[in-house]
């Protein structure tokens, strides 16, 4: 039977899958860059189901809000290796800058905690009762992200030899391996499939916008290098398993 606090019930789940992290590495919106810098995420998610009262294992009195919204909380770990891809690192380019770009490597890691409000166009009590096999959903929310990047070069130490190892755009304080905390906005769309009375599978597509350009540890001057004007972003596709407490 369901257990929980009065007036609502709880669900827990595991979720994970590939992540495409868009940063100052490579060309923006270049497919080779997106494909080459794929990482992964894995996490734990928690739902407050407002339609179901766990004390009596029965539905709460109907309101549009409790029958179409759930509150989603999550703790997510994400990481991705980063390299430069695109025309500027093609073999035909033999300049010092091209060699420096090819020799640059990075790694981005984040630990994130946040909440979302998840909307279901299909009544939740119909899905929970088994009248629907699957339901779509969409959500919006925010996360606090602790990030810790690492950038290095095959040509030498980037901190003591920046002119030898880094293109000009990454010199003079435009690269920093220090950690930090940044907020992000997240938007999800997905689908849930009921597999038993007390468990669901989910497929979840997420777009995440960080309110900073330092998540990858680099921030070329956006007024000079207009190709690097955007903050860091990520897109992830995850598969999850949800069970009802």
UniProtKB/TrEMBL annotation:
Protein name: Glutamate dehydrogenase
């Amino acid at each position: 039977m369901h257990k929980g606090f009065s007036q609502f019930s709880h669900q827990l789940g595991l979720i994970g899958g590939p992540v495409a992290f868009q940063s100052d590495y490579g060309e923006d919106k270049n497919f080779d860059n997106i494909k080459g810098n794929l990482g992964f995420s894995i996490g734990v998610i928690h739902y407050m189901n407002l339609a179901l009262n766990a004390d009596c294992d029965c539905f709460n009195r109907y309101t549009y809000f409790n029958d179409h919204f759930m509150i989603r909380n999550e703790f997510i770990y994400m990481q991705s290796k980063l390299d430069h891809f695109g025309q500027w690192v093609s073999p035909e380019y033999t300049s010092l800058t091209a060699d420096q770009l090819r020799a640059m490597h990075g790694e981005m890691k984040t630990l994130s905690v946040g909440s979302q409000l998840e909307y279901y166009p299909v009544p939740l009590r119909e899905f929970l009762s088994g009248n629907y096999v699957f339901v779509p959903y969409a959500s919006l929310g925010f996360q606090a992200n602790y990030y810790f990047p690492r950038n290095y070069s095959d040509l030498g130490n980037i901190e003591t030899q920046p002119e030898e190892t880094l293109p000009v755009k990454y010199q003079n304080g435009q690269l920093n391996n220090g950690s930090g905390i940044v907020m992000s906005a997240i938007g999800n769309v997905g689908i849930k499939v009921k597999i038993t009375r007390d468990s669901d599978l989910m497929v979840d597509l997420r777009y995440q916008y960080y309110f900073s350009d330092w998540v990858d540890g680099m921030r070329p001057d956006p007024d000079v290098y207009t190709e690097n004007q955007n903050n860091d972003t990520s897109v992830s596709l995850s598969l999850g398993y949800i069970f009802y407490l």
